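Handout, section B. The chain below has 633 residues.
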Amino acid sequence: MFLPKHILNEEVLKTWLYVIQGTIDRPLPQGMDIKTGNERVLERWEKSSAWLSKKWCAKILNKLLNKYSDRTTVKDENKMFPEIFLPYYSNHFFESFLKLLCSLKTNYIHPKFRFFALKYMINALNFVELYHCINSNFEVIIYDVIIPALLLTPQDEEDWIHNPIEFLRREEDYLDLSQNSKMAAETLLIKFYQKKMFSTPDGELILFRLFEYSGNILLHGVDLRNNIQVDLRMKEVVLNVLGILNELILSKDEYQNKMQYLFEKYIIPEFGNIKGPLRYRLCWLFGSYSRIKFEQIETILTLTEGLYGSLCEGELPVRVRAAISLNAIFENDKAHEYIIPFLDKILISYINLMDAVENERLIKSFGGIIEKFAENISPYAVDLVKYLTNVFYKTDQESLQSAFLNEIQEKEAVAAGFLSSILRIFDPNLARNVIYELKQLLFPTLMYILKNESSNYLSLGLKILDKLLLYLDSLDEEMWMFYPILNYLIVGFPQNPNILHEKLNEEFKFLEAVNFNGKGEEYVEEITPCFQKFIQKDKGILLNARDPYYNISYLELMFLSVEKVYEICYDCENDTDMVLITTVYIALIENLKQVPNELLNSLLEKVIINIPIVKSIAMEKMLLQIVNNFGNS
């Protein structure tokens, strides 16, 4: 993308930039920067030419800085631009933006202008010409720009009361970054850390002062910079800032110790005494700092009890955030022990929340709870799977009916989260009768997933199938229905199956709904362990059952799958899948004692033919191992 040629005339460019500078710095009509809660007035101001002209100038400057000022990527036709813009104008624009943004605590600023001004600061961190300007105003930007931008807005407070689901969405909607000043302010703070602004001696002093500033607000409710009493919104915002900087603070013991002191001295003691958005932010903060190793057992128990209480009671956003953070805190053994007697209530609370809110992190946290308490989950396993399969169907159907790509992707991610949670329920401690009940519940779900190779959930479905094959003592007819489907995933159907298809009996009627063209080779990693377990638990089916489409034994059908993977791998750069699928041959030799000699000889022949042409030493060693096993058997 090129700048217009007439703009690249030095005098024209300077005049143009001078006009932009004047537009940004021009005083607003009287009263148009006064804060007001009157929506009609705000709507009129947002459409006013005074603010819109500033907004468009801020947007243009962002594009100039981001697209045309990087000397390493700028097109030859535009090389003159950064030589003029960066040394002579970029800092002036930065200072203009900073001046306006610093009035955010007391004045109204057009939300889109605010967003583009913050984006300019974010982009400015990539240019050495702007470093001195940023560094000399570093502390001012934190206290007078970032903190005010992160404060709860009247809209946040209204959503908290009347539309809590929208409050949660706005908190986590990173897709809406293009219009979200809060997300831009958060990104700017993170960029300061990533650019090592806190690593200089001055930057470290600023961080230590931030700890002191936060502690004073949390304990005394006073802003040290002006000695003015603050409201709960300021307490919420300093917790937010400390949470955003968690990666920096956890990177050094000295910082972590100061944060631990804040937790023990100011934060945890107040946990039981607060409500509303501040309690929400505390729950969020605990999740952000779950890696801190608190020395006092009482501190750990107080924290765990507070999160548990927040999960079971209080406003919807608090319960959701407590649920997400609770999973993280269970890395601590004492917290784990404390919560076991309340596991049933916790699981019910998660289920109620997932019914009320579609939140990917919530579902992931639920899966984490199941995984961490796997040894204790058996009494609840059947009811959990029953619930998870139902919500999976519901969410998947909603995704199929949606006409909006973002909504489809969100629904699919949520549905996949439910399947992941099912996967985590499987554990060696599950009773045999529980495993059988899970199989009865999951059979239709797996058929739903596996009958179509274009399914978005094939990988998870195959992993769940593998768990069932592992934990079931024996495989019934229903479980063997999956065997041909796994093969069709790889080899597809034969080109001319019509005659055989007409001979399908009731036993194979289910195959009529299967739709495979043999394009599922990317699932070899998931299919191979399933093949191995069918071999290990075979009671004569592999040799005696015949596939209705190919009119060959199930064992020969497996050979076709192996050969297809070999064929694909010879056309690829590596043979990882080839190595994986060859383990099926090893499993056959080790487990099937009654394989006819002609089939064994055929298998040996296939192995020997491939030894000279394989791509990797690992594959060659595996094939030689098979030959040796034949010699020893």
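Note. The longest helix spans residues 381-401. Compare this with the example in section A.
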